[in-house]
């Protein structure tokens, strides 16, 4: 019995050098901007938090410090993910981005749990809560404005270069802006005599950071475990294959993430009376059409012969 022909992938062409370089440069530039902003904010928030006696502002400073660490993780991953295939990584190094997103998620989770712990301890002993000085409020409002502007800048860059890792880092900055808003409200309440609001604000910030860290980490973990892409993308790939001349049917379309790229495995049905060469050419044409998508890294096609009745 003749076995179905397995079509091995041809050598995948290197990504467009200009696009790849632009993506790496944009990612590095936005991350360096984030480093500069978070470095300044961390120093200002720690100084003002200690001087004004605000636990919430110090918690926000710790959050900003975690951003510095995450920024360096992103810089490291961005550099390595742009490397092409080699003998031991024959599909490239794009999963450095997934690994970096997982590290960012774990970092946020750890920071959030630590903030929750400190806030709960303070709430258990309200008698030690001191009134917060007004300078803390001005610093919190300044941090809020800076982080919101940073988020909008980083998200615009991430969407332009289509990097999930940079999107994750941008939303990390948005979580900072939200936490700074909560901190500002808590400090305002403390200034007006409601002293519990400062540690309550720190508690809310901790919950926000913990939730964000869980979401990023869980999403990245599933990508590293070869989670398939969304159904809409799978349907589009299926239809592209189905519309290829000579393809009688398509089944067993399987996808998985490789960084921001997609790997595809698919079975193509062709006329059993077609020659091996014709079946091969049909499969190559179907693969070529799918590879026109900028988010597809490689397609493995398997040809199944089917009887075509009149």
Helices, by number, come to 8
Question: What is the radius of gyration computed over CA atoms, rounded to a whole number of angstroms?
Answer: 26 Å
Find the structural class using helix and strand composition: alpha+beta
Largest sheet geometry: 4 strands, mixed
Report low-confidence residues grouped into runs of 5 or more.
1-13
Secondary-structure element pattern, one letter each: EHHHHHHHEEHE
Structure explained in plain terms:
The chain contains 8 helices and 4 strands; from the N terminus they run βαααααααββαβ. The protein has helices at 17-52, 55-81, 95-124, 135-161, 164-191, 197-224, 231-242, 276-291, and strands spanning 6-7, 249-258, 261-271, 296-306. A hairpin with a 2-residue loop joins strand 2 and strand 3. Helix 3 runs parallel beside helix 5. The longest helix is centred in the N-terminal third of the chain and has 36 residues, at 17-52. The radius of gyration is 26 Å and the shape is elongated. This is Magnetosome protein MamB. InterPro entries: Cation_efflux, Cation_efflux_CTD, Cation_efflux_CTD_sf, Cation_efflux_TM, Cation_efflux_TMD_sf, CDF_Transporter. It is found in: Membrane.
Architecture blueprint of SSEs:
Elements: E1 6-7, H1 17-52, H2 55-81, H3 95-124, H4 135-161, H5 164-191, H6 197-224, H7 231-242, E2 249-258, E3 261-271, H8 276-291, E4 296-306
Parallel strand pairs: 3-4
Antiparallel strand pairs: 1-4, 2-3
Helix pairs in contact: 1-2, 1-4, 2-3, 2-5, 2-6, 3-5, 3-6, 4-5, 5-6, 7-8
List keywords for this structure.
single chain; 310 residues; alpha+beta; four-stranded mixed β-sheet; 8 helices; 66% helix
